[in-house]
């Protein structure tokens, strides 16, 4: 009989207790695996949802500011080297960065000034499908422009210009039709007119150009600073800035979910470890005579320690394997029931299974360390006295 046969025989003889302990340990592992898999998908989905509330990186042409004064008269700040961006080239370079998969939306803007019935107003050229990806909070009276010459008026701009859906106006060299009025947002969007990018470029004689680009990047998994640095390297003539307040707000929401899941997982793991340790300790007390006989037959202290440790290894490996499979199946059901994770894909990971098994085996052995040490400390004479 070898040291490896003794633990297996004991697990088989105490099958009811072993099965119950395995079930409890497996449920704990399954809960932890499911929580972590779901939290990863929820965090990713939550961040994608937050993208609809604005960009977190802005790309502008590099400029130099000069404060001019002469003879005690200040002429204010002047911008030198003001230019614009090549729209197609800028978007292509941003999309081609190493962390391009973390870029959720790229929304170029072309800003022009004009007068409507003698009143000055700003016209913002946008790509509607890209703009809506970062302005999910917009709502309009009327409808969003579905035609090239359609215009969406901000609420304050529509009020000051007397515009309503169906009105026509002239922007630059072309006439346009107001299809909708943006409901108040409390921001700069209320004071301008929005038009199709191609229409604006043609109306104001700036084909293929953009004044700045807003980028919505997914911050989880890679620091926003790395994305900013990569965009800056791809666009050496542009100034790239992260909107830190927006980044912090998003990361706080995502991190809060992940920290909550981690805390719950640690509590479950500690409870499972306590149960393993208590059960193993009880097993040592029940098998004190068996341990005494083994020691009398020549089993060394390390040998007895290895017997109980191997029981913990078998238990941990079985619980880790079954718990990961059950946790993955449970996470699929939970993700399917959550609206926020619509379209999320969760693939089975063999590496995750192996890593979970190794981790649970280590935790199980650690939990059984004290019972195994106590068993190895039993003196043969003390055990045989009780026979």
What does this molecule look like?
- It is a multi-pass membrane protein.
- Keywords: Cell membrane, Membrane, Transmembrane, Transmembrane helix.
- This protein has 387 residues and is α+β, with helices and mostly antiparallel strands.
- Helix content is 54%, strand content 21%.
- The chain has two domains: 4-51 and 250-386, no CATH class; 63-236, no CATH class.
- Strands 1, 5, 6, 7, 8, 9, 10, 11, 13 and 14 form a ten-stranded mixed beta sheet that branches.
- α1 (5-13) packs across α2 and α10 packs across α11.
- The mean pLDDT is 82.
Ordered list of secondary-structure elements with their pairings:
Layout lengths: L4 H9 L1 H37 L5 E5 L2 E7 L2 E8 L4 E2 H9 L7 E14 L2 E8 L1 H7 L5 E3 L7 E4 L1 H7 L6 E4 L2 E9 L9 E5 H7 L5 E2 L1 E6 L6 H11 L3 E5 L1 H43 L1 H9 L4 H37 L12 H18 L1 H8 L3 H6 L2
Using brief descriptors, characterize the structure shown.
alpha+beta, 387 residues, two-stranded antiparallel ribbon, 10-stranded mixed β-sheet, 14 strands, 13 helices, elongated
Briefly summarize what is shown:
The chain crosses the membrane at residues 260-282, 303-325, 345-370. This protein is of the alpha+beta class.
């Amino acid at each position: 009989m070898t040291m490896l046969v003794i633990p297996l025989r004991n697990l088989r003889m105490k099958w009811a207790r072993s099965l119950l302990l395995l079930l409890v340990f497996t449920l704990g592992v399954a809960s932890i695996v499911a929580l972590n898999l779901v939290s990863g998908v929820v965090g990713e989905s939550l961040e994608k949802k937050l993208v609809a509330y604005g960009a977190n990186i802005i790309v502008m042409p590099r400029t130099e500011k000069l404060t001019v004064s002469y003879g005690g008269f200040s002429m204010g700040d002047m911008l030198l080297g003001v230019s614009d961006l090549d729209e197609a080239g800028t978007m292509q370079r941003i999309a081609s960065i190493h962390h391009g998969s973390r870029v959720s939306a790229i929304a170029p803007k072309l800003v022009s000034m004009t007068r409507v019935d003698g009143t000055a107003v700003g016209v913002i050229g946008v790509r509607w499908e890209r703009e809506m990806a970062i302005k999910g909070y917009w709502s309009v009276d009327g409808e969003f422009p579905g035609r090239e010459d359609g215009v969406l008026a901000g609420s304050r701009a529509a009020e000051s210009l007397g515009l309503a859906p169906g009105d026509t106006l002239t922007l630059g060299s072309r006439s346009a039709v107001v299809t909708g009025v943006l409901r108040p947002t409390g921001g700069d969007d209320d004071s301008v007119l929005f038009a199709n990018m191609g229409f604006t470029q043609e109306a104001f004689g700036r084909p293929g150009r953009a004044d700045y680009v807003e980028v919505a990047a997914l911050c989880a998994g890679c620091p926003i600073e790395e994305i900013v640095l990569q965009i800056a390297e791809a666009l050496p003539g542009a100034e790239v800035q992260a909107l830190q307040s927006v980044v912090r707000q998003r990361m706080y929401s995502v991190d809060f979910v992940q920290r909550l899941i981690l805390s719950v997982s640690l509590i479950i793991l500690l409870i499972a470890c306590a149960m393993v340790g208590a059960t193993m300790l009880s097993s040592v007390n029940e098998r004190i005579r068996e341990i005494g006989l083994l020691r009398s037959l020549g089993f060394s202290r390390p040998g007895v320690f290895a017997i109980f440790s191997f029981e913990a290894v078998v238990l941990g490996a079985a619980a880790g394997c079954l718990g990961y499979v059950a946790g993955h199946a449970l996470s699929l059901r939970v993700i399917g029931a959550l609206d926020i994770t619509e379209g999320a894909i969760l693939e089975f990971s063999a590496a995750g299974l192996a890593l979970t098994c190794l981790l649970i085996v280590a935790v199980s052995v650690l939990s059984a360390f004290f019972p195994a040490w106590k068993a190895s400390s039993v003196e043969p004479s003390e055990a045989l006295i009780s026979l």
